[in-house]
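Supplementary Text 2. Reproducibility record for the structural model of the 370-residue chain.

All settings were left at their defaults, and a single model was retained for analysis rather than an ensemble. We include the record here because the model underlies the residue-level annotations in Supplementary Table 4.
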Amino acid sequence: MLESNFLFFKMKKTESTALTDPGVVPTRYWQLLPDSRIQCTVCPRACRLQEGQRGWCFVRARAEDQIVMTSHGRSFGFAIDPIEKKPLYHFFPGSTILSFGTAGCNLACKFCQNWHMSRSRATDRQMTVATPTQIAAAAQKSGCRSLAYTYNDPVVFMEYAMETAQAGHALGLHSVAVTAGYMQDAAREDFYRHMDGANVDLKAFSERFYHRFCGAALQPVLETLLYIRQQTNVWLEITTLLIPGENDSDAELASLTQWVAEHLGLDTPLHFSAFHPAYRLQDKPRTPLSTLVRARNMARQNGLRYVYTGNLRDQEGSTTRCHVCKQPLIIRDGYTLLEMHLTHKGTCTRCHTPCAGRFASLSDDGQVKS
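Retained model, structure tokens:
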């Protein structure tokens, strides 16, 4: 358990935490300490709060002698995206997904690409008020197959996400978590009971990187990955953003890909994404395509069957191939699905080897049925 070393935020008078506020809801992931502080048990930061303090994530706070979430129904960034943008390449490819997030995050990534949302302090400003049932209904009306909890980390608004997932399931919609996987055991178990798919952002494969660039730790993320693979039916994909000179060495890439192959399985899709200078990490160069290709080749040499490159145009690096006969199964251009060569059972049309994933009904020529 990693207790936060950061200062906690005192709530301003304009920031309501009254339980009469519909955006403020009680939570059950906390415990009372002998010194009268209350400890949040959602994530490994384990923030210990006095009355009137917010945790590091900013959206969980102590009020009326309990921990409350202050962002219920207050959302950012509603967008209809291709599922490939999450990125999820083996979870109903070619379908659309309704994405949204809230303020707050429990990591402190210096390279955050959504920092204007995740580090937002104005929890009551520039947000759309939307209930779980309204979100699910909007997704269904828009023809989406799934809902995505993304932009910031759904760990910090897990109650809102779980309720939205329930509303979506009632309408036949799937739920996807796009997350850094930084959770404690009880919260993790409850959260993934409601998810159907997840892309976990494995920032690096060293504690040094997590401490220096994220203010966090690697081990809890590995525990989340193991939990998803071993204890749930959630479809799992992984993304690692490669930052030049920080987490892209041959030694680290070898350790990461070997661990994924050994502990999560050869069918686990792994996405290597290019870094672009952002937020507080403006002094690093962009990741060249050659680095992504090197990482992809190493992962494939270590046995992983589905390895992709992202954030740079690379059609070969975004193509899904049969791991037996090497025929292209799904050809993509960026986030656009161009061709599918899968049978209605999700197998290769040439050699009939199954392709790992969750697929919609397909016609015999591999086209997605309506």
